[in-house]
Design goal:
Layout: E1 2-7, H1 13-21, E2 38-42, E3 49-53, H2 65-76, E4 81-87, H3 91-101, E5 108-113, H4 115-120, E6 123-125, H5 127-134, E7 138-140, H6 149-160, H7 173-186, H8 193-201, H9 205-210, H10 212-225, H11 234-250, E8 255-257, H12 265-273, H13 279-295, H14 302-306, H15 315-320, H16 325-333, H17 346-368, H18 374-391, H19 394-409, H20 412-424, H21 431-439, H22 444-449, H23 457-466, H24 476-483, H25 492-517, H26 538-572, H27 588-600, H28 611-620, H29 626-634, H30 646-658, H31 663-672, H32 675-705, H33 707-737
Parallel strand pairs: 1-3, 1-4, 4-5, 5-7
Antiparallel strand pairs: 2-3, 6-8
The structure holds guanosine-5'-diphosphate and magnesium ion.
Amino acid sequence: MKFALAGNPNCGKTTLFNTLTGSTAHVGNWPGVTVDKREGTYKKLGEKIDIVDLPGIYSLSPYTPEEVVSRNFIVDEHPDCIINVVDATNLERNLYLTTQLLEIDVPVIIALNMIDVVRQRGTTILVQELESKLNVPVVEISALKGEGIDAMMKKAYSCARVKRVGQTVIENKDLVNLIEKTKDEFAGKVSSPLFHAIKLIENDELEVKNHQDILADVKTMKNRIDTGDFAGDFEAVVADERYKYITKNFEKTIIRKNGEEKETKSDKIDKVLTHRIWSIPIFLVIMFFVFHLVFSEDLFFLNSIFGLEVSSKGWVNFFTGMGYEDLLAEALEAGEAFTGISIPSPGVFLQSWMGWLTGSVIDLVAGVLPEGTWYTGFIVDGFLTGIDSIFSFIPQVLLLFLFISILEDSGYMARVAFIMDRAFRKFGLSGKSFIPLLMGFGCSVPAMIATKTLEDEKERDLTIRLTPFFSCGAKAPIWAMLASVVAGHFLGDIFVFSIYLFGIVIAIVAAIIMKVFGKTKEVPPFIMELPAYHRPQAKNLLAHLWEKFKHFLYKASTIITASIILIWFLSNFGWAFWKGMVEIEDSILADLGRVLKVVFYPLGWAMGADGWKYSVASITGLIAKEDVVATMASLGLEEGTISLSNAAIYAFAVYNLFTLPCFAAVATAKSESSKKGFRVTIAWWLTASYVISLAVYWVGKLCELSWIVGLLVILVLIAAIVLVGLYASGKLKAKEAK
Ligand code: GDP
Ligand code: MG
């Protein structure tokens, strides 16, 4: 048997799916995360039951591709039962879809989800009345808490074995007559004739395309009854009928409030977190706090402010990690106490530990292998060093993801999309495109796929173009590595935070500019259910981290290893490779790098003797962003050997942030954008990264020479951006006025 989960976006279908099937599909907390259907099995009844999780829809007349997926499945694939998941805190809106589902000849059961929140609010839903009005079983569940799930499945199971004929809630006599006649024409041709008849009357695009023959008859019949009330717009009349039915029957009778509706904890939190003015500063503080916990070498600034230090005595050394081993040894040699080291954040702690661990593995292997042979060089300096350089940052990166997942799972990220929508709507940016962008913090590939939820092609192209600017997980090792060398250590968190922020700001500014000068349509209103906050579930968090880690292992064992081997070969052999190995400076790679270096020279980081290595690294980043770190390590650039100025480090970082993402993301961009849009996107990535990196380097250089002048230039740049923004909003207003 096959049961389908259908319902509005964000009503909890995926959560229910996970509970039923024990799988760990991504619960996104925002619409559009499930863009394709997903299948699993429920095993607690005698028979195995396939469960299909469908993308969220508001209606069965589809506009976007993922809505088509849902509609086609429900109508054409004949599930044995449709479980209509309904957000019970938003009953009236959700029932609109229900009234359409009821028209199909399929058993339907209604799952009133989020009943936990309903109860918290002090509301009661009169289930039996609802059942008798809708004429299908209704069950109360909480997908999140796992309440009522098995009872629901039992009911659905018995329901699935009884044939059901579609029913409609439409009561208008003329309309009912018309529907009956149209239905007769469909009889015998399709299953669910009632459903098809109503959709054809509504002028539903798919229906009109598929049933041209019946359409002509329907038109004449329509003309006969269209005496004013209908004004030719049958779609509006049908929708109106549905809403009328819902209001009439459910507004007063079904939901009983026990006194005033109570303000839940979640509502109270939202008053602060989505405050008109404070929401954005709060978002920035939360993000900073996350980066601080992951990248700071001075936890809570205890050292800078209070002078707190780690001493060489006791367990503290152990817990601050072996990363400080060298310093410790030095101190011992000099006969001094080991001081001057601040308490690291958990992220830096993990990193130093992991660095120590992987370093020890390398030493161990190097100790066993004979010295000076080519294969020792290959295994130790090429392969292990490359892989190790990334591995040592992985725990830190996973910690970052843990925090991001917590923000996501608790419901906060959905608020961020809402806040962004409110702040930037004036400029023509919609919360709908912020959702894929925020997903870009994880990985650009699913983020770009999620742009499917945007109806306008231009909007999709634009969003895809900006997705890599929301720094993805694979770029995090680059920032972590650079954070450990920037500004003499102590500003790692601020460095990484500023990179992320820089990406977001540039993306928003670029979007505004492109919006104003491109010919995009008006922003459609953005409706989004904000689910109540809840404690993130350990199961979900672990599943996310495990996914990330697996993805990383997979990449490390395939493309990253392959590119490390290639880099090793190219950096150990000259053009006449049959003559044996050469010094790195005479290698093929060095020559290639020197050609690249000419191109990148103005950006600062390619200037010195090692300039060609950075140039090569930034190119290998196209294969996978982790490769930047791996390549640098196999070419001997690591903490201690990187001698770039801070300006150059920053310019190098932003170059990697804004340039072409990895091949996988480029391929996704190609398949998800329009043909012309994709070409513009490639040109845009190449230009933006070059120009921004150039600007950052020279402004940074200026700051190094004279803070005052540098600051002035930065202020002028910001003023210019603000002016462009104001001009843009003025222009948009003019456009709207027209
Ligand atoms: P989908 O878009 O329909 O697949 O919805 P999701 O499964 O992604 O859930 C949307 C949000 O609602 C998530 O934050 C879930 O944790 C939350 N949610 C789902 N079911 C419940 C529930 O029964 N109670 C509460 N309080 N939250 C729920
Ligand atoms: Mg979903």
